[in-house]
User: What shape does this take?
Amino acid sequence: MESSRYSQILNYSLWMIFIIGLGYLKLNFHELWKDEWQAWFVARDKNVFEIFSFLYYEGHPGLWYFFLKPFTYFSDGANDIFLISLAHWITVAAGMYLLFIKFRLPIVFKILFALGYFLSFEYGLVNRGYSLVVLFSFWAAWLISLGEYNKKHLAWVLFLMCQTEVYGVMMGLVFGIFLYLENSKESIQTFLKTPAIKGLSAGFLVFLISVFPRSVGHVAKTSAKEWDFFDKILVSFQGNLSNTYLPGSTLDTFTYGWSAIGLCLSILLLGALYFVFKDQKNLLYATMTFTLGMMIFSLFFFMGGIRQWGMGFVFFMALLQIRNLDFVKEKIVSIIIFWISSIGVFYGFKAIQEDIKIPFTNAKEVGEFIEAKVPEKVPVVAINKFECTPVIGYAKRKFYELPSGVEFSFFKWVDKIYLPSEGELKLFTKYKGVGGIVIITPKVLDPQRYPNAKLWQKFDQKNYKNENYYLYSLPLK
Assistant: This one.
């Protein structure tokens, strides 16, 4: 009894230490990048119905945007960073509550998982909706592990999981397969009528209606790399295994492609996953099905990168809760999990250290410069909305785009970059009734195309994403 109480106090203490430390890093060191600002601007500047109709441009379901919406009501322009961080911090805290308080994993693995690259950095520090996948996958795994649980409770969890990310949908479908295998004595007709499957089916339908990329070329335009089909197979295989379970053990697969070492590690990891779940066949089928599904999705729809591939590690953690590991008796399995999670901790610390020392982009610096140096009455025209969106957040003002000549805060992934002529820019300046404008661009302007645009300030200092900015002044005369 005393031991159980001590364990509970320890779990709560570790949970509090983790979320407080993460909150401190978020507010004091993390620079928000374009995807973080994009979701906030969509939630802030569109109503609920407009958000729903905008989702197929985003390629993400609506839950993150709708979750952000109430926080936007408190926005005054100057406190957006705090509100974004707070909203995301709440989702992370909830997911970590399940890990530390509800999961029956050995405490050493709880600590290693929490400090690992994905939970601490990609889904912890970076303010994106992937944290909701963590929350609902952990939630579903915890309910399933209870054996006796409220069936409608699980139905709602699976429904909401399908509104997080496409990877949440994949997890939900695999959880559905697992539940069927666990209840194989039931007929398929009876099983399809269970609350969990009804919730999952409804969630999947809403996902398809809201997110399915109806814009021509949407999926293709979200992929930045071109490989032949054989290379895609190897990149998908390595990315969803060695990059997922041993981040940092090889060079980033998306950037540098596959390697012999990476493929060997991936084969080794596939064997490790088999060994971890081999004594519980249904869990083995679940992890292999999800891994295969991730590879197929990478191969035919969106290759992704370590942020997306990390969903495989999240699902792995969730399945371990259902597995109920005996740390003392299952020494080899414990060693395998310790090996995998330790690598993640090292890479996680490295990522956080880089986030503290090196700015993610130069968006914050240029945004603060514009806020301090450019009067409100002087329009700022952005060339390339996609790259300039994070600067808007730090400048605390909207920029203008051409040819429409209207203000914007967010972008559409399918938008093409419009390069206005100097004549168009001067016509816009005259229309606004000002003596000149400021142009912001991620690349140096062609002096022959813009002979009267004067480079005012450049922001090309070292940054993690190599995203630089240049400010030009263009007088009307």
